[in-house]
């Protein structure tokens, strides 16, 4: 027996299986994490001002930032959190302790401004720059003037405390990402009204991501899907959002405006004819490059956009009265006094300096530049390019005047989802146990039934591990796929057992030959399952893609990892 | 007393023996059973097409419409509610089902093939559910799924293409490996029969089929082919024993495979509360039961005819 165990743990197939299981457990990373995890941070909210970062979508679930306590009061679940938050008074400072640090937040008071039907006069101060001749030289002087303007009379009514701007959920206990139907949320399937090239689809998706990011939603999946007849779809999935929220976001036009002073110079769409995106037209500015300033590195990027004639004229009109700013530090006069401000759906998203040479010129080709910072050269380059891409995306927004029709929406309440998870686990376990019982009765040998049970469980662990590792969402369809994979796995183990045990009496063949014969049947069955699943990856807007891919990954792991280990086990124990 | 016992055992043995003899000798006659089942199933499907215009009863995922899932932990009179909701949508198809988990009600599903883009219609449906159940939907965290009718139709078309391509690919793999026409066709026919029978039984049960159901038919291809491949490999590629010995050994292995699958789908069917899984498991269960006939009578019969013909030509397998 000792000899057999030694042989078993030195068998490379068994070692491979063990390695896969260990790797999977590391990937799944089960923890006993308590508290609540941050899903989203709303832009410009108290939380965002206090510096709580928006979670990155590719962060592993267990590595998410979690709230531990607020004002030293431990927060154990979502209910605790909302109860505490709803009792806060405005303009108070609270301390939120998370797994990443301590943040001091000041709660804001929420006001509603009501415009009355009367007007009032108001004095405002404005800084203007004037060229004044002093002692014969022309100099630029800042002058503050007081203006009297008429505005509609308004009153502000306090509406209590503004939400601090955190969207939270129960901290994930493993790295397995639950699909939408298991955790609640909304999925919307959109179809572009006109056919788009793959390149345009890419831009469209970037745009939508950018737009949803502006609104502080991070737990979003946006992907494109095609079907066999060539229909195009865009799938948007937002965990924990309601259907109304998603529809509202998608209904927004993604209105882009560039303003100088308060004048709109150009809008996204027709005004911007072209945005340079190719590598030789856009990138790190070769003339400025990167430089270190203290502990930080800075890089500048540049790319050009082409405006329509009318937009160019508007830009000329808006800039002709501006002054050239003299920069005391560099001793140069590079920029105009007013920056070009970029607005997306009336939210300011960026500000660019306008080159002095553009003053009053109706140029259609304008260079847009910006910068990015990082701890080292590489990081600075990466961040600059990231910022550039974001800006390009914003500029193109609206320049794809394609209407998206909502063709399907699924809204799954988290309550239903939670029930589904528990139920799916129960179902899988009972199915596995019942298979083990049938096999146990058939062979009447624990040495066969237990390894089959272990193999089934290890297939579940490895499949979940792979899913956690590649960030694949486990939804109901994927669970069905896991069940198929395990089911065919059991079939194969029965084939292996029968092929090898049968020969025990009539030992015509040696073990190697017997295992080989079992694998002929297994490989053929494997090939038929895989080819049967392939069309499903491409069909029907990819909604059954999860099922098909999980099945294919599952049977592949089974055929190449778990079944060889099982056959080695049977060989060693039965020989 | 002792003698009688002995006799009983002998009698029992002889029943088993006769059955085996019939199975061994009358395999051509036995072929009537699976082909009759196949014929009846095809008749049912033709009738279904004739009476409804479609060969399956599509659910809203293939037809377009609205599905509302409401958690509700009390037993309700479904037929009553279905009547009440339907009365408000006389021209539409409304179905109400309970969601059960291990026998207890956990909620229910209302399906209606109304236009999901018509907000007023959707609201009407929600109101109808609220009034017939006397629940405030805004307080119970319900789920709602809306599918446009053109998308439903395209899903259906797509699924059929996927199914056809999958079937074709499977057939090709089998043909490439065995390189003989009759045994390969026997395998493909067995898989085809499984699917047709499962479809007909689903129709007889008046069960709706959606995208999940299509996935189930694909799974069925995989499961049904497993046993057929096992049988054909053992009969054609192995040399030990007689052809019948090889068939018997295949039955031992194959029935264990099918039984484990049947038991686990049965368990899943009873335990699950997800409509997606329920539909998949029901189709698999019916298909697997059909597979017992289609593999061990139909495929075996055709394979033996093939082997016999070869023997006549002097090729002994």
Tell me what the structure shows:
The complex is a heterodimer of chains A (575) and B (317). With 575 residues, chain A is an alpha+beta fold. Chain A has 14 helices and 25 strands. Chain A has 5 domains: 2-30 and 414-574, Multidrug efflux transporter AcrB transmembrane domain (Multidrug efflux transporter AcrB transmembrane fold, Up-down Bundle), CATH 1.20.1640; 36-108 and 163-169, PDZ domain (Pdz3 Domain, Roll); 110-161, no CATH class; 185-253 and 403-411, Alpha-Beta Plaits (2-Layer Sandwich), CATH 3.30.70; 284-384, no CATH class. In chain A, the strands form 7 sheets. In chain A, strands 1, 2, 3, 4, 5 and 8 form a 6-stranded antiparallel sheet that branches. Chain B is an alpha+beta fold and 317 residues long. Chain B folds into 2 domains: 27-57 and 151-312, Multidrug efflux transporter AcrB transmembrane fold; 65-147, Alpha-Beta Plaits, CATH 3.30.70. Chain B is 72% helix and 9% strand. Chain B is built from 11 helices and 4 strands. In chain B, strands 2-3-1-4 form a 4-stranded antiparallel sheet. In chain B, 48% of the residues are buried. At the A-B interface, strand 24, helix 10, helix 12 and helix 13 of A face strand 4, helix 7, helix 9, helix 10 and helix 11 of B.
In short:
With about 575 residues, chain A is an alpha+beta fold. Chain A is built from 14 helices and 25 strands. Chain A has helices at about 1-10, 10-30, 45-50, 80-85, 180-185, 200-215, 245-250, 310-320, 375-395, 415-445, 445-470, 475-500, 510-540, 545-575, and strands at about 35-40, 65-70, 75, 95-100, 100-105, 110-135, 135-160, 165-170, 175-180, 185-190, 220-225, 230-240, 255-260, 265, 270-275, 280-285, 290-295, 295-305, 325, 330-335, 340-345, 345-350, 365-375, 405-410, 475.
Task: For the structure shown, list the relevant keywords.
heterodimer, A: 575 residues, alpha+beta, Multidrug efflux transporter AcrB transmembrane fold, Pdz3 Domain, 5 domains, 5-stranded antiparallel beta sheet, 14 helices, B: 317 residues, Alpha-Beta Plaits, 4-stranded antiparallel beta sheet, 11 helices, 4 strands
């Amino acid at each position: 027996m000792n000899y057999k165990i030694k042989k078993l743990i030195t068998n490379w197939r068994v070692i491979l299986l063990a390695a896969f299981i260990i790797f999977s457990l590391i990937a799944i990373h089960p923890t006993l994490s308590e508290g609540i995890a941050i899903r989203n941070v709303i832009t410009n909210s108290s939380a965002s001002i206090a510096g709580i970062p928006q979670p990155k979508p590719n962060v592993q679930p267990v590595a998410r930032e979690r709230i531990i306590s607020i004002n030293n009061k431990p927060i154990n679940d979502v209910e605790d959190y909302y109860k505490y938050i709803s009792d806060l008074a405005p303009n108070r400072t609270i301390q939120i302790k998370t797994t990443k640090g301590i943040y001091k937040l000041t709660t804001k008071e929420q006001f509603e401004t009501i415009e009355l039907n009367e007007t009032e006069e108001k004095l405002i101060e404005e800084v203007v720059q004037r060229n004044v001749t002093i002692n014969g030289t022309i100099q630029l002087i800042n002058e503050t003037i007081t203006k009297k303007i008429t505005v509609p009379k308004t009153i502000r009514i306090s509406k209590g405390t503004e939400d601090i701007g955190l969207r939270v959920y129960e901290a994930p206990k493993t790295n397995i990402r639950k699909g939408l139907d298991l955790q609640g949320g909304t999925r919307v399937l959109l179809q572009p009204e006109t056919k788009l090239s793959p390149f345009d689809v890419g831009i469209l998706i970037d745009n939508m991501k950018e737009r949803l990011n502006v609104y502080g939603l991070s737990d979003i999946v946006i992907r494109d899907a095609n079907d066999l007849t060539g229909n195009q779809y865009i799938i948007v999935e937002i965990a924990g959002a309601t259907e109304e929220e998603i529809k509202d976001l998608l209904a927004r036009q993604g209105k882009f405006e560039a303003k100088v002073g308060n004048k709109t110079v150009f809008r996204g769409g027709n005004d911007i004819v072209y945005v340079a995106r190719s590598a030789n037209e856009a990138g790190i500015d070769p003339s400025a490059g990167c430089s270190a300033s203290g502990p930080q590195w800075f890089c500048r990027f540049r790319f050009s956009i082409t405006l329509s004639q009318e937009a160019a004229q508007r830009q000329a009109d808006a800039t002709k009265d501006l002054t050239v700013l003299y920069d005391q530090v560099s001793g140069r006069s590079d920029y105009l006094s007013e920056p070009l401000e970029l607005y997306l759906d009336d939210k300011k998203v960026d500000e660019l300096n306008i080159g002095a040479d553009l003053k009053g010129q109706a140029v259609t080709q304008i260079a847009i530049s910006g910068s990015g910072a990082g701890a080292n050269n590489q990081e600075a380059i990466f961040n600059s390019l990231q910022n550039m891409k974001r800006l390009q995306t914003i500029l193109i927004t609206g320049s794809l005047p394609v209407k998206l029709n909502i063709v399907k929406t699924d809204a799954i309440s988290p309550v239903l989802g939670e029930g589904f998870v528990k139920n799916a686990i129960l179902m899988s376990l009972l199915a596995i146990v019942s298979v083990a019982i049938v096999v146990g009765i058939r062979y009447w040998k624990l040495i066969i039934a237990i390894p089959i049970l272990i193999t089934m469980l290890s297939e579940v662990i490895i499949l979940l591990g792979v899913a956690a590792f590649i960030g694949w969402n486990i939804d109901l369809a994927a669970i069905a796929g896991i069940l198929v994979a395990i089911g065919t796995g059991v079939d194969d183990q029965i084939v292996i057992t029968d092929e090898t045990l049968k020969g025990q009496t009539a030992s015509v063949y040696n073990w190697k030959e017997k295992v080989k014969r079992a694998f002929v049947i297994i490989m053929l069955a494997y090939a038929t399952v895989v080819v049967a699943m392939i069309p499903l990856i491409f069909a029907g807007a990819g909604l059954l893609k999860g099922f098909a891919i999980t099945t294919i990954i599952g049977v592949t792991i089974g055929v190449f990892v778990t079944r060889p280990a099982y056959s080695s086990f049977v060989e060693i124990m039965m020989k | 007393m002792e003698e009688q016992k002995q006799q009983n055992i002998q009698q029992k043995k002889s029943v088993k023996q006769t059955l085996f003899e019939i199975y061994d000798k009358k395999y051509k006659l036995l072929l009537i059973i699976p082909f009759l089942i196949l014929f009846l199933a095809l008749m049912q499907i033709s009738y279904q097409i004739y009476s409804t215009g479609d060969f399956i009863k599509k659910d809203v995922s293939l037809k377009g419409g609205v599905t509302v899932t409401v958690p509700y932990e009390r037993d309700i009179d479904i037929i009553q509610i279905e009547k009440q909701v339907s009365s408000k949508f006389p021209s539409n198809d409304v179905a109400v089902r309970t969601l059960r988990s291990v026998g207890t009600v956990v909620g229910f599903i209302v399906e209606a093939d109304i236009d999901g883009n018509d907000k007023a219609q959707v609201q009407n449906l929600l109101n109808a559910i609220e009034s017939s159940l006397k629940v405030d939907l805004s307080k119970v965290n319900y789920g709602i799924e809306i599918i446009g009718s053109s998308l439903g139709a395209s899903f259906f078309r797509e699924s059929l293409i996927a199914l056809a391509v999958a079937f074709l690919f499977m057939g090709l793999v089998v043909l490439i490996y065995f390189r003989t026409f009759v045994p390969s066709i026997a395998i493909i026919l067995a898989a085809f029969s499984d699917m047709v029978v499962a479809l007909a039984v689903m129709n007889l049960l008046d069960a709706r089929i959606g995208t999940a159901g299509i996935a189930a038919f694909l799974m069925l291809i995989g499961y049904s082919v497993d046993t057929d491949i096992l049988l054909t490999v053992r009969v054609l590629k192995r040399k030990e024993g007689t052809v019948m010995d090889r068939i018997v050994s295949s039955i031992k292995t194959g029935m264990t495979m099918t039984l484990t699958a049947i038991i686990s789908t049965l368990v899943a069917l009873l335990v699950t509360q997800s409509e997606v899984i329920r539909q998949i498991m029901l189709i698999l269960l019916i298909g697997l039961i059909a597979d017992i006939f289609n593999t061990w009578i139909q495929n075996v019969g055709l394979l033996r005819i093939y082997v016999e013909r070869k023997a006549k030509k002097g090729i002994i397998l």
